[in-house]
Design brief:
Structural class: mainly alpha
CATH architecture: Up-down Bundle
CATH superfamily: F1F0 ATP synthase subunit C
Oligomer: single chain
Shape: elongated
CATH topology: F1FO ATP Synthase
């Protein structure tokens, strides 16, 4: 849990300047383009953490029961695909908000 909090804090430090420098083109009002870009980055970081945890769990399960390795591997691939799909949707939505004005 502490590791996840540290990663989230690091992500805010990395993507924070994009939010701070986000300005409207003409009138100087605050825009949410930086926040959308930060959300896209956080979606990618969260997806990477999720796939890492799925892989870790699968390797530990195969180490405990090597005879069930095929079934565990298939389930791991399905779970990783679902996580990756949700991650890409989150990143694309964030980036589309930035690109489409």
């Amino acid at each position: 849990m502490t590791k996840n909090f540290a990663l989230a804090t690091l992500a805010l430090l990395v993507f924070g300047p994009a939010l701070a420098m986000a300005q409207a083109e003409g009138n100087g009002d605050f825009t949410y383009y930086g926040l959308a870009a930060m959300g896209a980055g956080l979606a990618l970081i969260g997806g990477g953490i999720g796939i890492g945890l799925v892989g870790k769990g699968a390797v530990e399960a195969i180490a405990r029961q090597p005879e069930a390795g095929g079934t565990i591997g298939q389930n791991m691939i399905i779970a990783a695909g679902l996580i990756e799909g949700a991650t890409l949707v989150g990143a694309l939505v964030g980036l589309l908000v930035v690109l489409i004005k």
